[in-house]
Design goal:
Keywords: Membrane, Transmembrane, Transmembrane helix. It holds the Pfam family DUF6198. The chain crosses the membrane at residues 12-34, 46-68, 80-100, 106-128, 161-189. It is built from nine helices and no strands. The chain is an all-alpha fold. The chain has one domain. Helix 1 packs antiparallel against helix 5 (106-128) and helix 6 crosses helix 7 (152-169). The two termini are 33 Å apart.
Amino acid sequence: MNTRTLSLVKSIVKLFIGYFVCATGIVMTINANLGLAPWDVFHQGLSNVLGITIGRAHILAGLTILIISSIFKEKVGWGTVFNMLFIGIFVDFLMLHHLIPTFKSFVLSFIMMLLGMLVLGFGCYLYISVGWGSGPRDGLMIALVKKTKKSVRFIKNFQEIIAVIIGYLLGGSVGIGTVVMAITGGYFMQFAFKVTKFDVNTIQHRFIDDDIKLIKEMLVGHRKCDEKNR
């Protein structure tokens, strides 16, 4: 196995471990049963209305967001597409097999919710550091920041408030945990990045259209080489 192939395999493994860790963190916050994270309120509401699992609702919401981001001409990476699909699949796997415990104690549930946010932060580090594109929701946030010229904080808060309102109206669970996660989620992610010494500004994302251009260039080069050999 050459160096390039080995590097690709390592990136794929790291990417999918990151998705699984993210899903674990999400399920931990769900099973804490203190109110869901803002986007998960929307996912649960969607699952209630459509009669599907939360994981499938996560995938459906991600697909819709991906389409909206594409309309705003935001570039999409392979990691964005995989994020949309596999985090939802892993969430369903963990929940349907009851692999994450639940607690009747408020204290234990609260601790698990906090640990879930920390785990989610490390999961985000793992998949973002590969450089294959951010998740659909973060991609939409970036697209809206560019389009509206508003701050990241404003757009992120706006997105999550809308997600909570719609999710609540659709029957999603809102509680003290929703407020705690909305306020502290960014701090836990920042802590995970600090522990791993990860600077998100150093990442150069690779997008799908970059690979398409590379493939076209390779095909053109191969064609010219064949013509020269003739």
